Amino acid sequence: MATGTQNGIGIAASARRIVGVAVLAVRAALRTKTVAALLALLAVCVLALPGVVKGDGTPEGELHILLTYTLGFAFGILCLATLWAACTLFAAEIDNARIHLSAVKPVRAIEFWIGKWLALLALNAGVLLAVYAGVYAQVCWRIHRDGWEAIEQPASRHVARPLLPTPREEARATLAALRARGEVPQGYSERTILRVLEEKANEKYNEIPPGGQQSWRFSLPRPLRAGEAITARLRFETEYHTRTQVSGICRLGCVETARAVEVPLDDFTMKEIEFDVDARAFGQIPADGLRTFELSFMHTGDARHAAGLLLRFRKDVALLIPGGSFWMNLLRAAFVHWSVLALLAAFGLTLSVCFSLPVAAFVATVLLVLTMVSNSVVQVVSEEDAQKWSNRAGMLVSRAVHGVTRRALQAEPLTALTHGERLDADLLCTSLGWNVLLVPLLLAAAGCVVLRRRELADTE
User: Fold this and answer.
1) Which residues, at least 6 apart from 422, have a Cβ–Cβ distance to it below 8 Å?
2) For the chain, what are the domain ranges?
3) I want to staple 257 with a disulfide (CB 3.0 to 4.6 A). Which of 40, 283, 326, 386 is the partner?
4) Gap between the terminal Cα atoms of the chain
5) Residue 411 half-sphere exposure, CB side, CA atoms within 13 Å?
């Protein structure tokens, strides 16, 4: 009992020291002109950028500028500011030989590190909340000023994707089919072929030719209730000049009630088609709602003139149902961005412990740029180009960086906001758990090992 009491007292004392370090770091930051300059720059971004970048004049275009360009640009500024500020916190004190004055007993290295990190998290939370509040206020103002219809206003909808084999299962099935036809690419190992097929699974296009038909089965993330509408969405690729000859019939059926609705489609001038179906069209709805649906598309265009439709089944076909309010989805997006800033803060702090300020800032910037470039390179470079001797080193580095950062950056909140897609709890928990807990914990452990050595060196 006494041991438990002592542990509780020790934890409380440690928490007080961490909070004390965080409060001092926040006060020191607020006394400088850096935070004020950052807020001024973000205010210009949020207020002026929507007026500078012109859209197509539609509510969708204005919403795209507000959510994608404005929030994206502001988030980019915050990423750089967070990374450079984190690189400064320890490096400046170490370079000026003042680290032994700050990291005094009984404050341990881990408490010192966490306190500095929490200070950055608190500052980022406040600034990010102000940015998102400014964008939300502009959205509300434009809805009121221009009188947007209900269908034009931003929404938050649950997204159901087709029930398909996993990318790994699809890769193995494709490899087996290639073997059966004797078409396995020569000069590549089985592991390499499976990796490429798995990487390309999400971007794989399937064609629906004139006269062809394709069906997909869905399981909704929550039951569809009476009085609600379900939305079917198809995105496709085809030659622009042939779209006027494309026509088709979509059939959306409910498995539980065995009722279906057919919707003829004859306007394919745009690359995306959405249509709504009221839940009552599927007959008597049970008390627990409807969950399982089947969507099919039949291409009825003339084979002599119409082109086939190319769709990525994993990305371009979806069913959507109401999923809460837009402002709550906006708040979830802010949490995802905050988690990325938390990861950058932890990374910058560890670099700040290991290197001097100029070196830490340089390494942080290079690695940030390398991360953005690597994720693009992995997606666009073909395996044939990757096998060239002049590209092997670059591809090796790009794949290594992509593998390390893929989970941390898998959430795309701005894309979801623009398309009215709800950021689900699983994605949010993964982002917070990976970016705010697991990776910062590993970085903190590494940083504290170095910090103890540098404290001793400065003291001696």
Assistant:
1) 156, 157, 158, 159, 323, 324, 329, 332, 416
2) 12-156+326-459, 205-322
3) 283
4) 41
5) 27
